Structures are given as structure tokens and as C-alpha cells.
Amino acid sequence: MSFAARKKLELFDYVNYTLLAVISLICIFPFLYVFSVSFTDPKAYVPLQFYIVPEQWSLSAYKYILSTNSFLHALKSTVFITIAGTALNLVVSFTLAYALTKKTMPGRGWMLSAVIFTLVFHAGIVPGYLLVKQLGLLNSYGALIWPALTNAWSLIVIKSFLESLPPELEDSARIDGCSDLGVFLRIVIPLSLPAVAAFTLFFAVSHWNTYFNALIYISDSKKWTLQVLVKTLVIDSDSIGVGQSGGDDRLVPQETIRMASIMLAMAPILIVYPFLQKHFAKGVMLGSVKG
């Protein structure tokens, strides 16, 4: 490589890294602001002032939110939906994807066509709402779990991953007298743990962040998810009296409560993700290349 070409490459790298650093800072600063305001003492909080580090640390906003029944109900609802929904997602997605890898399965072609069809076309909001209503799932957790048991993208990726596993292992297990269910549970699932970890994160994040479906299907405030509650605190706080701190004479600033609620909604995913990041990347890539 010539000296001029090397200089151009170095200049490009410099500009590229600088641009990426600026974009990263733009993304990080709002998060730092939310974090700082949520931990700022209500007495020291000044509206419209930008915070990077709280001037006076305080847990007042968190104590207020965690003491409210609405937050506890929303937390219970979200945790239940996330755990139950993720478990059912994994069972349905992996069992159906495994079945679709078997070319001898009756109706396999039609089922694959139906899966791909849903990947391209979507019924829309109104038909989905009417279906949930006809099934009697309105205002229940089932409205957020059953219609989202799996999706076409997950099935296709998991199917591709399972097809990359050596078929000789399954043949050996069957020779040893293992049933189809035994092959799936003892051979396929243990070899698919990276993919299981990756899709556990996918499904869990999706259920934890459930907002729109909860907004249109759930009318009972005791069954709201955290995201709906956060929306209420951030946008509709004036209408529900947010800002009063129980027996305390002073008012907790609404902005600190809003930011604290956002942090509480994000915290579980931020805590869990680093532990699954390795499996997340590996699980997605394993099914992308065969051979």
C-alpha cells in the first residue's frame, strides 16, 4: 500500500471514529440526564437545568414510586407476563421449528408457506382486536401472551439453526432407543443452548416492553404493565395526582418521579443483558451459516 493510500485510510479511520464517538455521546447523554434527575434531591432539583451528576443524591423519588400500589401492581403484571410469555414462546417456537426441519412431516410445505405469509402480510390492529375480543381475552393477561406465542422471524431463524446441527447425533440416539421427544429434549435442546439464551433475551425484552397491546387490550389499571404506567406517569401525571409524597408537606417534583419510573422500567433488562450478551451474539450467528 502506498504512503498516500495509507494516509487516506488513516484519515478515514479518524473521521469514522470521531463520528461514532459523537453519536455515542448523543445517545449516552439523555440516559445520564434521566439517571441524574432520578437521584437528585427534590430540594435541589431545578427545572430545565441539565444534570450529568446529581448535586445532592436522594432516593426520594424511588421511595415514593415503590410505595405506590399502582407501581407494585404493574411490576407484578409485567413480571408474570414476561416469565409466562417467555417460557411459552420458547416451548412453541423451538418445538414448531424442530418439526419444520423434518421433511417427512405431513403438511410441512403448507405450514412453511403460512409462516412466510405472516412474515410478509399482517392482519392489522382491528382484526387482531376483534379476534382477542371474540376469544374472550380482553382485559386479561392472556391477551398479551396467547396472540404472541411465536412469530415468523423467530421460527425461520430457529429452524435454520436446528438444521445446522449434525443429523448423525439424532440417528445415533434413535438407534439407542430414544424416542422423538427424547431426541428433542436430550440431544437437540442441549446443543441449542446458545440459541435458547439468545431467544430468551429476545422474547423477555419483547414482553417486558409490552406497551401498545397492553394499552388497547387492558382497561383495568391493576393489570397495567410497567410501560403503560410509565406512560401515565410521564405524560398523564397531572391527571392522577403524581407528585404528592404522602404525609410529607412538600411535593416531590414530578420530573424526578418521571425519571425514576423510567429507570425502574429499564433496570431489569440492563442488569440481565450483560450476562446473556455472549450467548446472544453466538446464538444468532450459529444458524446463519451452514456447512
TrEMBL record:
Transmembrane segments: 12-35, 79-100, 112-132, 183-205, 257-276
Membrane topology: Multi-pass membrane protein
GO biological process: transmembrane transport
UniProt-annotated location(s): Cell membrane
Major subcellular site: membrane
Domain ABC transmembrane type-1: 75-275
Similarity comment text for this entry: Belongs to the binding-protein-dependent transport system permease family.
Protein name: ABC transporter permease
Natural source organism: Paenibacillus rigui
